[in-house]
Design brief:
- The longest helix is centred in the last third of the chain and has 21 residues, at 286-306.
- Helix content is 38%, strand content 18%.
- The chain has 9 helices and 9 strands.
Length: 307
């Protein structure tokens, strides 16, 4: 987002004494013989075109001196964050309700596990200002719902299109991790993070979780795993092993409140250094004003030479 401002705005104050001097500090010629010679000259007006152009030149010069800039605080070309991929279970079991008994996320609505997961994940995505984020959905198979990108609005929009059962009824955890590794294929980030959320056990897909976890290790991808739902539904032993071997952490979420706090904890654990300070990209426009002022000055010199 660009904001137009003056880097040295206090220098604009120098403009007022300069304009006052233009008006008051005029050249006076003292006549040697005819003391009332000024009666024979035409009365000059301060507001004639030539004077207005001179004043405008001063305005341009002093504004250029104050250095107008366009400031971009979150320019995607200048980010130095992390690449994060959310692998979200979209199998049939994610249609179950009753996960938000404390009404932490639902706000009185009857939401499924997947819908609650999408709300919390969307909030997490928007918080990662300096990072690239992508989404993988999985069921019987896995697919990239959104490639890893800086455009948070697009990622959240693609996330909103996910529905339970759209990738099948079963749970292919191995395929989900393997597809996540594939999504990181062109990543240049030093820190690559995969957050895998599921409420079931691995019972589908072409790649085993063990093989997929090895692929993630080789690609230097850290995996955080989240077991969602009632106790015993997710294969917590498997999720713990995947997280531990990749240098990540396993979490259990038995309610929407716990799931929300887990994403907040991961956000804190993986905070980007750039988030602690303001990162600015500045475009300077003083040269445009100087060129404009020079053009007007050349015009005045030209008209003076023609007289």
């Amino acid at each position: 987002m660009n904001n137009i401002s003056l880097e040295y705005s206090f220098l604009i104050l120098l403009l007022f004494p300069a304009l006052y001097c233009i008006y008051r500090c005029k050249e006076h010629k003292k006549p040697n013989y005819f003391v009332h010679l000024h009666f024979l000259s035409a009365k000059k007006s301060f507001l004639k075109a030539e004077q207005l152009l001179k004043i405008f030149i001063f305005l341009l010069l002093f504004t250029a001196l104050a250095s107008p800039i366009a400031v971009d605080k979150i320019n995607p070309l200048n980010r130095h964050g992390k690449d994060i991929l959310l692998a979200i279970d979209a199998s049939g079991s994610m249609n179950a309700s009753g996960f938000d008994m404390e009404d932490e996320v639902s706000r009185g609505k009857r939401l499924s596990r997947l819908e609650i997961a999408k709300v919390i994940a969307s909030d997490f995505i928007y918080k990662r200002e300096s990072d690239n984020v992508g989404v993988v959905a999985f069921g019987d198979f896995a697919f990239i719902a959104s490639p890893i990108t800086y455009e948070k609005e697009i990622v959240v929009e693609m996330l909103s299109y996910l529905s339970h059962g759209m990738a099948g009824q079963n749970t292919a955890i191995g395929d989900a991790i393997a597809m996540g590794v594939r999504a990181f294929e062109h990543s240049r980030a030093k820190s690559k993070i995969l957050i895998l959320l599921t409420d079931g056990e691995h019972n589908s897909g072409e790649i085993s979780p063990k093989e997929a976890a090895k692929l993630a290790q080789d690609a230097d991808i850290k995996i955080y795993t989240i077991g969602m739902g009632s106790k015993g539904e997710a294969d917590e032993a498997l999720l713990q092993k995947i997280a531990k071997e990749s240098g990540g952490v396993f979490f259990s979420a038995y309610s929407a409140k716990e799931l929300k706090s887990i994403y907040e904890e991961i956000d804190a654990m993986e905070s980007s250094k750039i988030k602690s300070r303001e990162y600015l990209l500045k475009d300077f426009y003083y040269w445009m004003l100087l060129l404009f002022a020079l053009g007007i000055l050349l015009y005045l010199l030209y008209t003076e030479a023609k007289k």
